[in-house]
Amino acid sequence: xxxxxxxxxxxxxxxxxxxxxxxxxxxxxxxxxxxxxxxxxxxxxxxxxxxxxxxxxxxxxxxxxxxxxxxxxxxxxxxxxxxxxxxxxxxxxxxxxxxxxxxxxxxxxxxxxxxxxxxxxxxxxxxxxxxxxxxxxxxxxxxxxxxxxxxxxxxxxxxxxxxxxxxxxxxxxxxxxxxxxxxxxxxxxxxxxxxxxxxxxxxxxxxxxxxxxxxxxxxxxxxxxxxxxxxxxxxxxxxxxxxxxxxxxxxxxxxxxxxxxxxxxxxxxxxxxxxxxxxxxxxxxxxxxxxxxxxxxxxxxxxxxxxxxxxxxxxxxxxxxxxxxxxxxxxxxxxxxxxxxxxxxxxxxxxxxxxxxxxxxxxxxxxxxxxxxxxxxxxxxxxxxxxxxxxxxxxxxxxxxxxxxxxxxxxxxxxxxxxxxxxxxxxxxxxxxxxxxxxxxxxxxxxxxxxxxxxxxxxxxxxxxxxxxxxxxxxxxxxxxxxxxxxxxxxxxxxxxxxxxxxxxxxxxxxxxxxxxxxxxxxxxxxxxxxxxxxxxxxxxxxxxxxxxxxxxxxxxxxxxxxxxxxxxxxxxxxxxxxxxxxxxxxxxxxxxxxxxxxxxxxxxxxxxxxxxxxxxxxxxxxxxxxxxxxxxxxxxxxxxxxxxxxxxxxxxxxxxxxxxxxxxxxxxxxxxxxxxxxxxxxxxxxxxxxxxxxxxxxxxxxxxxxxxxxxxxxxxxxxxxxxxxxxxxxxxxxxxxx
Length: 739
What we know:
Blueprint: E1 2-3, E2 17-18, E3 32-33, E4 37-43, E5 51-54, E6 57-58, E7 67-73, E8 80-82, E9 88-91, E10 102-111, E11 117-127, E12 135-136, E13 140-145, E14 154-157, E15 160-161, E16 171-177, E17 183-185, E18 191-194, E19 205-214, E20 221-230, E21 241-242, E22 247-251, E23 259-262, E24 265-266, E25 276-282, E26 289-291, E27 297-300, E28 311-320, E29 327-337, E30 345-346, E31 350-356, E32 364-367, E33 370-371, E34 383-385, E35 394-396, E36 402-405, E37 416-423, E38 429-436, E39 444-445, E40 449-455, E41 463-466, E42 469-470, E43 481-485, E44 492-494, E45 500-503, E46 514-522, E47 530-540, E48 548-549, E49 553-559, E50 567-570, E51 573-574, E52 584-590, E53 597-599, E54 605-608, E55 626-635, E56 642-652, E57 660-661, E58 679-682, E59 685-686, E60 698-702, E61 709-711, E62 717-720, E63 735-738
Parallel strand pairs: 4-11, 13-20, 22-29, 31-38, 40-47, 49-56
Antiparallel strand pairs: 1-2, 3-6, 5-9, 7-10, 8-9, 10-11, 12-15, 14-18, 16-19, 17-18, 19-20, 21-24, 23-27, 25-28, 26-27, 28-29, 30-33, 32-36, 34-37, 35-36, 37-38, 39-42, 41-45, 43-46, 44-45, 46-47, 48-51, 50-54, 52-55, 53-54, 55-56, 57-59, 58-62, 60-63, 61-62
């Protein structure tokens, strides 16, 4: 195997490691350490060959081999040694708490010459010794103050650093030489304050010797000479004012030198009185941060670990450069945000349990548990099973770590399961699971579902499918019995011995086109194991339904004179069959002399094929003004089925013929002197149209200017209305109009 390493920032290792895994033919058991982790402590001034602690690995029962120990990682500088026979760990070189305070060793145990190892983690804490005195950053310093500054004014902050930790690194400040009672110093913060007003006329310079002493035993001390010169510049009457936030956040995995916060304080004074410098007064005892006194940039000085310390409270002072110096303090809270850098650890490395076979899925097996020192979502563990032989038969609750069966187990198939599980940032545990035997074989169908198609004209009692299920058991436990569950609507039954499915009644696709039911195979076991398969029977259509018109008799009418292809009526016929058996075609069976009409074979629309003339063909067979057609609806099945319907079409008259007189001229001779009212003659006209279109009205349109005659507009009778005089008028010519 080739293994590569990546750090939290995503940078890969410069080279990869090659791991060779040898597969052994026999099961070898290593010597297991009594604890998965050991913790020891040793002072940093311990001499070489000092005993630190002992690790112990247990030999397997009845083993005659000797256990040997070795340090396999964590000691690149060779500062430690281990007794290979007794597991005693000793110092090999001088230790330094300031260089490395915690050492993590990996120790392996080997049983004789066996190639199998076990390992444990050894955490060694190097405890601090007070071997570093406090150190001032400068040997001397000079400060300018003003005579206007009142008592209590902070004029200087002494700052020393001690590489030791704890009390050995805690510093107390004092004024070593009291040349004047004008100053005092805060022993914890190092702030030098005025105790009274100073006057330049009396003394212009003060020299103070400031001592920095740690709290170790014995304590170590260093000194700083401070020269105070009183020169009156601008009056420093404004203290710095913090502008930056008192809270900052930083991820625990940032590199050393990472910018955590920019501390900003403003001072409105002029010149040096307004120049601000920054110092950390307290809260940085472990020297986790560095503050640039000029820029106010706070950076990390060492790696952070949220699991060791979740937040820091730094007391920061902003000090101007006036004389006397004025200051302001702020407590800066730095909250260390968690990253997922802690590996979960199982409480046990090996879990052993047993579970009966032939139990329903969901059977509880065991609960594994791991812990993670991270916080929030990073500490919420998710458990999973690593792929391996038979792992699919189990299911792990990712939240609780509970392992349950995901399928019924069969001891005859697999007796022992070896399962590995791990949380997401992985730690692994081994689970050995033994399956307890039971009589658990049940019949199994060859398929979980069947789909077949049969025609609807099958005779009752026809076999449609022979089901078969197998049972690995023997004797009565292996004899399979078949049955049906779910409603088959009385259409099917199954032979309990052979598994043959037969029809029990005539099928009709138009009533029900599909049946879905389950068949069950069971054996004679007292536990009643059984298996099911889903049957889907599709009923195929047979052309057993003729198209049926919505009406057996239709009536329609059409005006004469319409152009060919004029729609008259649409008829509909439905066929309950499907496919071609249900597709309907329309045609005219009879009554269509001279092909006067036509029908759309697909849509059933009946239309004119030629122009109709009421006067020439006013009726078709049944009455004086109707036309009777017999229509045929046929399906496309084999053989084709059909039905008929009658359509009575009435041709409606249009006023398309003028009246025609019986004679173009009428000649009448009358005597003069006949009495008024006498009947002269009668005209008659005929109209080929019908109804009101054939009703004729007569009028005299000329020749009767003096009104000698009158005309009956309905009958066409001409009568005398004035006396005739031959000598006056011998002849009258009347023009009569028929409308």
